[in-house]
Structures are given as C-alpha cells and as structure tokens.
Design goal:
With about 900 residues, this protein is of the alpha/beta class. It is built from 34 helices and 26 strands.
C-alpha cells in the first residue's frame, strides 16, 4: 500500500534538491509530523527540513495575530458587552452560560467572511418581526431582547478591537485578517514553493487564500480522495470536492492526487455489539487475534474511536503482550474521578440550602475512592458516617451533622467557611485540598493520581489569579463556570512512539494518514455522523442565505473522513452499538447501510453480531456445596417456613437465595433520597390494610367505599411518614411520589365503588398471615409454607385471592401451559406466587375451588388479572380447583427436593 503522503512526495521529487524553498501546509500538525518522517526516510541522510505548517498556524502567521484562549475571549467579550449604553446587563455567571455560543457564531461569521453589517441588521429585523404584535404592545423582557440584538454589532466591533490591541484573535478573526493580508505577506516572504496537502472542506477564508496562492504564487494542491465518491453526485463524501471543481478556475484540469482505491479488494466487517463498553472488549479481543495471526500487523493498524469517551475502556481492554501502542489523543481530566470530586465539592458549597446539604451529595463524598486514604490518615471512618445517614434516612444534613463527622480540616473549611461564600476563598480552599492529598498519593506510590492532582493544582492557581484580576467574578456560580471551562482544556498526554505499533486516535486525527488495517468504533447516528446540531443564535434559513455551514455540511465532513479512512485500507472492522441509550448515540449509522448497498463495497461487506465472552460473575467465583451444616440450616428454614418470594428467588437465582435466605445477608442499605419501589409498595399495602381491615366480614357498598376514598389521602400520608419520612415533610420528588400514591389509592377506590354497584363483594381477610405444613415424600423432615395474603374476598359466591403489586404485570405472566415450568422459569414467578397463596388458603379454609390473581397499580386499567391454565393457544381456565392445586403441590414438592438435594449446589444461573 502506498500512502497518500508518499504519493505526494513521489510527485514532487524536486523537494529533495532544495528543501528550504518548499512550504507544505496540511490540515493538522500530526499530518505534518508524518510528512516530515516520510521525508527523513527518503532522504536517508541529515537534511534541512522544508517548512511544514498546519493550516491554522500558517493562517496565524499571515495575519500577525496569536490565538487567544477561550477564557480570555469570554472575559474580553463580557467587557465589550458591559460597555453598552442604556441596556440592563446580565451578571457574569448568566452571561458565561451563553457567551461560548455567541463566540462560536462570531467565529463562523468571520471564517466565512460574512458581511457583518447586513447579517446583524437581518438578525435584529427578524427578532422584531417575531416579537411583533398587532396592537404594538411589548414587555420589558422583549425590550431587553431586542436591545441585545440591536447592540450586537457594536459589541462585536468593540470585542475585536480589544483583542487586536493585544495582538490576539479568535480563529475566525485571525482568518478574516489573513484573507486581507495575504498579498502583502507573499511579497514580504518572497518566492517559495507552496504545497497544500490533503484538504477537503474549506471555509471561505481558506478557500480564498488557497485560490489566490494557486493563481498568483504558483502554489500546488494535492487532494486525498477517490473518484468512487467524487463522481457520484449523491455521495456526501465528495460534496466539497465537487463544489471546488465547480467554483475554482484553477481546477479546470481536475484534482491533483486523486487515485482510485475503492476498486481494490477489501475485507469489510460490520459488527453490531451491545453497549459501548462491550465494544471496547470486542476491540481488545480483535486486536489480540490480529496480533497472534501476524505480529507485524499492528504496525499498520489504526484503532479510530468514533466516541472518544471510549478511550479509557479501550486501554483497559487491550490484550497483554502488544509490542507498542501509541495513543495520539490526550486524556481529558474532566473524565477523571478527581474532576467529579471537585465539581461535587463546588456543588455542595454552592447548593447548601436553609435545611443544609443534600444527603445524597454527602454520601457520594463519603464514598469517593480518591478520598479514602486521606480519611483513614485522619482517623475518619466514612463507613460509620454513611451508616448513620442511612439509619436516620435524612434528606438534608445540617452544619452540626457535618461538623460532627470528623472530616479532614480542608473539607470542613470548604463546607463550613468562617466568612462569606466568595469565589476567591473558595478557590483557595480547593487548592488546599490538592495540597493535602499530595502526600497521601505520594506515599501510596500512585503516579496517575499525582499527575491528575498536578493539573488540578495548576487549575485552581489559575482560578485564584482570575478571581483576583477580574472584579466581575463575584459569585460561586461564576467560579464554577470558569472551573468547568478550564477543566475542558486540561488534558493528560500519553507517552508513546508515534511511528510504531498500534495507533489509537480520534477521527479528525486520522486526516491524511493511511493504514492497512482500520478498526472504527461507535459508528452510530449522533456520533458518526454527529447529527443535527442547531446550537447557534443564527437561524438555519439565515445561515443558508449568508453561506454559513449547517448540519448538512457538517455531516458531509464526517462522511468524507469516514470514507477517506477506508480508501487504502485492506481490512476494515466497523463496530456499532446495537443497544444505545440516550447518551450513546442512536441507531446504526447511515454509513452502515451505505456500505452494504454500495455497488463496489457491498460485495465485500459482511454483517455480524458479537457478544464478547465477559464470563458469568459469581460472588466468590464458586458454587456453594450443600454440606451437613448447610443442610441443617435449610432444615431450620423449613421449620420457620419458606415464603413464596423466597422460593421464587431460588428459581431465579439459587446463589442469591443462598445469600439472602440461608445466610441472611440483607440487600445493601441505600439512602432513599426519593421513594424506592419497595418502600412505595410498603406504603400502599399499609394504607390498604388500614382502610379495609375494619371491613372484614362485611359486604362492600358504594357508600362506605366513598367514605374510604375521603380518608384515603390522610391514610396514605400517615403510612408515608411511618415508612419513609423521618422529618414528616415531603419535598421535591418525594412530594410527587406522595401525590402519586394518593392518586393511585383514590383511583383504586373509585374502581371499587363501580365494582360494588355491579357485584356483591364480601371481604374475607386483609393481610392474612397463613402457615401450612407440606408433607414432601422422600424428604424426611417437616417443611412449612408461609405467606401474607394481601386480600381474600368473595364475589357473587366465588372466593378470590388477590396479591397487590406496584410493578408492571403482563397477563401472560399469569398464564401457564406446562406445570413443570413453574419451578424452572423465572418468568413464571407471579403465577408461582399466587398459586402458593391459593394453596395456603385452601389449607386453612378447606375450599376446593377459587380464583387467584394480581392487581397491578402500575397498569390499573387492566383491573384484576387472574391465573389461568391455558387450554388452547387463545383460551385459559381461570378456576384454581382441587386438581390444579394438586398439580401445583407436586411442582412445589419437586422444587423443595431440589432445594434440599446435596448434589445440587447453589450457583448462579447464566443468563
């Protein structure tokens, strides 16, 4: 395979005769580095390198301006904004939320050399039209908005003037200045052989610069593309090339550098993989196979991350023994646990309310892995503090609670400051925490944490300087915005050899580079391509009118990068997520379907689905053998009684049954900041018992049910306080949960009134606790079944057993066609449980036929749903008669024999 950069050098043999006369301009510094490397290999001796620029650096050199940092731009823009006359200005914290978007628009306006006077006039006029009313009335908010748009032009002008006085500019400003300075620049620099290499999408400033140099300085340009997509007028990958061919007079002879590669044999595998992290596992396995097959393959392999947040999982998934790996991307420290810690601390400093701090935030702080060594060194036990908070089930923790916990001094100083909550002391408190953590990490010998800490210490020093220098940083929200902005720019660089081994990179870093084997991850809509993004103050139609790029052009850019990467590759592995969530992109990318239907590439494309073997996680990594002591413990449980829930748990997961029921290990305590599902159910059961218990033995009539409905809210509130709230106050989501409970109970009672008008309903029992001994042939010991039946009623002479559920219940979960499936299929758990209750009540009452079912508060519209024995595909008999109870008894006996069988261990069921 001949790379694109090699083909350019082949076409320019004269560069070796006089390298200093050549100037190469490429899309990125990385591409320039590889070009210089190829030159060195060809020269095979010491030589003076030609000048090699990235396009951004070249344009800055023409303009005479330096690029300003994002924060500096925001500060200068705010100063220009404050200079407006007669306009009510926003605080810096509010301004900083939308300033980056305005900067982005200014950037686009200048990069595309838009006539700003006309654009700003158009935007102001549009706003006036949209806020126009027939009677000419207005509001203060509309007046402020219109004033902002009318003042946008002077703000833009003042902003640029301030930057120019410092010799600085944002990218668009630098490009606009360069477009006007090019003739003078070329005269001053004298003659040179300018070569532009590997461009595709160009903004207007770049386009004018390159065209001028092609026409006036003898510059040359090489395009990295394939006729396969250039010649297809519908293919987005060739969109910009076709545009240049139409509009540039200098390209009448065609595009230099174009080569046909898509006609060559390729192996393309499209693999659907569930979830993003599983893609990382798959890539690790794939790289291991490639390396074992041919150890030299990885020197010509690129792993391109469509979603760069996969970097950390990818690095952990790489197989041992790879000879060399070079990560071209830096690791953003915003993804590190320390970033989450400091953002949490800032949130806690800012969000302390009159009731104190949110306990959930406090729980997160106590459990943070990067603080445990520090806590231990200070004699502070965070587990005891967490246990106290869970035990009390507090929603807020006050200053006294925080003060009594024994936090290290630096955290106490941050959360419980002596003075006002001002930005400068807060930044100093955060710096103190980094200084306190440093010796802990040094002693632990943790270089990665120390590297993170170094960056955060530097960041907080910057914050201290900024809050001292700019008087308008007056509140903690502004400080947090600055912290997050600085955080976005801080990265940890990886060490590696850029010319050897596997190359791990992002899509943009692959520009102008070629590899024989290419692996691309996360090829889903919303990632590759990135999808529609209209984050701009400039409406879509106005962008079209003024020649500004929209999401359509951005999609075409992604399409080009994707196909260009495939051009010279021989083996291509493309992964996409088959089960994305809201943060993981959408359906498989359109690129997947394009490849499958491509007349050339479709024949070489295979579609696969993969689930890497992640193993079955089992606590302790072993099954539990039933020895004499364990069988003795099971015998004790048999005497105390097995509940329907515990036996369902055994069917679903024997190892979980062992932990919960045999060992008695409860579910880990969790703080319920909002009502959990089990608490929700407990409250509802308690309220129903309170309402219906006095009616045992009575017929329900619409009048007494109406009285129950009138009391229902009071009863729910009392149960809610009893089981959940300790301070008696429902707030936020808990208040919503309480209202939902009230509504559920009210709707249920309304439905009961309607039933009572149609049917004779007698309440036999409410929350009835029943035990029944089971004589299991072959077991040789007594076994008891026990349970609490939520409701027993008689309707028009038929007895019904009812189990209340707060979760979703599907009618199919109560239908069976094979009795033995009840002891093996976890999906039959609800049918199993109601039959247990039926068997219990039959043993107590001697009744020979009844109905058993569920009332689900999640899908109340379904009403009562009854167990049914399917007689055909479409019908089921809902009578639980003596024969069916006997059939169920046999199933239960066999299940209990399995539980006590010493040859059947407790082990997790693979799913």
């Amino acid at each position: 395979m001949q790379s694109f950069l090699d083909s350019v050098l082949d076409d320019l043999p004269e560069w070796q005769a006089d390298p200093t006369s050549f100037v190469f301009i490429l899309p990125s510094k990385r591409a320039g580095f590889f070009l210089r490397s190829r030159m060195a290999q060809r020269a095979q001796k010491t030589f003076i390198s030609p000048r090699i620029w990235s396009i951004e650096d070249f344009v800055a050199d023409i303009s005479g301006l330096r690029y300003a940092g994002q924060l500096h731009l925001i500060f200068r823009l705010y100063e220009a904004y404050l200079d407006q006359d007669g306009v009510e200005n926003e605080s810096f914290s509010d301004f900083a939320k939308w300033a980056p978007l305005l900067l982005q628009d200014f950037n686009e306006i200048d990069r595309y050399l838009v006539a700003t006077d006309r654009l700003f006039e158009t935007l102001a006029a549009l706003k006036e039209i949209r806020n126009w009313t027939p009677d000419g009335t207005s509001t203060p908010m509309i007046d402020r908005q219109l004033a902002f748009w009318k003042n946008l032009r002077p703000v833009y002008t003042r902003f640029r003037t301030r930057l120019a006085e410092e010799g600085l500019g944002y990218q668009g400003m630098v490009y606009r200045r360069a477009a006007g300075s090019l003739p003078e620049y070329l005269r001053e620099r004298g003659a040179a052989n300018y070569v532009f290499v590997g461009f595709n999408a160009l903004n207007t400033a770049e386009s004018q610069l390159i065209q001028y140099m092609l026409e006036h300085s003898g510059a040359r340009i090489y395009w990295d593309a394939d006729p396969h997509y250039i010649e297809n007028p519908l293919h987005d990958a060739g969109h910009f090339m076709r545009k240049h061919l139409r509009e540039w007079p200098s390209l009448k002879g065609g595009l230099r550098g174009i080569q046909r590669h898509f006609g060559e044999p390729k192996k393309i595998e499209l693999t659907g993989i569930p979830k993003s992290v599983t893609q990382a596992k798959f890539c690790g396995e794939l790289l291991g196979r490639l390396h074992r097959k041919n150890p030299d393959t990885l020197d010509r392999t690129a792993l391109v991350l469509g979603d760069e947040t996969l970097l950390n999982p990818i690095l952990h998934a790489l197989p041992a023994g790879l000879p060399a790996v070079n990560v071209t991307m830096s690791y953003p420290i915003r993804n590190s646990p320390l970033a989450q810690l400091f953002d949490l601390l800032l949130d806690m400093r800012i969000e302390k309310g009159s009731s104190g701090w949110k306990v959930q935030q406090l729980m997160t702080l106590l459990g943070h892995p990067f603080l445990q060594g520090w806590f231990a060194g200070n004699g502070f036990d965070p587990r005891a503090a967490r246990a106290m908070l869970i035990r009390e089930n507090l929603f807020f923790a006050d200053a006294a609670t925080i003060g009594a916990m024994g936090f290290p001094k630096a955290i106490k100083d941050l959360l419980l400051p002596d003075g006002p909550l001002a930005p400068l002391p807060t930044a100093e408190n955060l710096e103190d925490i980094t200084l306190a953590l440093k010796p802990i990490y040094q002693e632990a010998g943790d270089p990665l944490r120390l590297e993170y800490l170094f960056h955060f210490n530097k960041l907080f020093n910057q914050l201290i300087q900024l809050t001292s220098a700019y008087p308008f940083i007056t509140d903690l929200k502004s400080l947090q915005l600055l912290f997050r902005q600085l955080l976005a720019d801080e990265k940890v660089d990886f060490e590696g050899e850029p010319l050897e081994g596997l190359q791990v990179m992002g899509m943009l870093e692959s520009r102008n580079l070629d590899y024989e084997t290419v692996i691309i991850t996360s090829v889903n809509e919303g990632i590759l391509p990135s999808g529609k993004s209209n984050a701009s103050f400039i409406p879509f139609d106005v962008k079209k009118e003024f020649g500004l790029p929209t999401y359509k052009e951005k999609d075409a850019v992604y399409t080009y990068h994707f196909y260009r990467l495939l051009q010279r590759a021989r083996e291509i592995y493309i992964c996409y997520n088959t089960e994305p969530d809201v943060l993981e992109g959408g359906e498989p990318s359109r690129f997947i379907n394009q490849l499958r239907t491509d007349p050339l590439l479709g024949k070489q494309t295979q579609m696969k689905f993969a689930i890497p073997d992640t193993g079955v996680l089992q606590p302790g990594g072993r099954s539990i053998h039933k020895g004499p002591d364990l069988l003795k413990r099971l015998g004790e449980l048999a005497v105390s009684g097995f509940s329907p829930t515990s036996l369902s748990r055994y069917i679903s997961d024997p190892l979980l049954f062992y932990r919960r029921n045999v060992l008695g290990i409860p579910e880990s305590d969790q703080l319920e900041e909002t009502v959990a599902a089990n608490t929700f159910g407990t409250v509802l059961h308690d309220a129903l018992e309170t309402l219906y218990l006095p009616l045992e033995g009575q017929l329900l009539d619409p009048q007494n049910l109406k009285e129950l409905e009138a009391r229902s809210s009071e009863v729910v509130d009392r149960a809610f306080r009893k089981h959940y709230l300790k301070d008696g106050k429902a707030r936020g989501r808990n208040l919503i949960a309480l209202q939902v409970l009230r509504q559920h109970l009210s709707l249920f009672l309304k439905g009961e009134r309607l039933r009572a008008r149609r049917e004779q309903i007698r309440i036999i029992g409410v929350e009835r606790k029943i035990r029944r001994e089971l004589h299991v042939p072959g077991l040789g010991l007594p076994v008891w079944l026990k349970g609490t039946v939520d409701r027993i009623e008689e309707v028009d002479g038929r007895v019904r057993i009812i189990d209340y559920k707060t979760g979703q219940v599907d009618p199919s979960q109560l239908r069976i066609s094979e009795w033995d499936s009840l002891r093996t299929d976890p999906d039959q758990a609800k049918a199993f449980q109601v039959l247990c209750y039926a068997l219990l009540y039959q043993g107590e009452s001697g009744i020979q036929e009844l109905q058993a079912g569920i009332y689900s508060f999640k899908n109340m519209g379904a009403g009562y749903q009854w167990f049914g024995d399917k007689t055909t595909s479409y019908t089921a008999d809902e009578a639980v008669d003596a024969a069916r109870l006997e059939a169920f008894r046999e199933v239960l006996h066999q299940l209990l024999l399995d539980v006590f069988n010493p040859t059947i261990p407790f082990e997790a069921v693979p799913r």
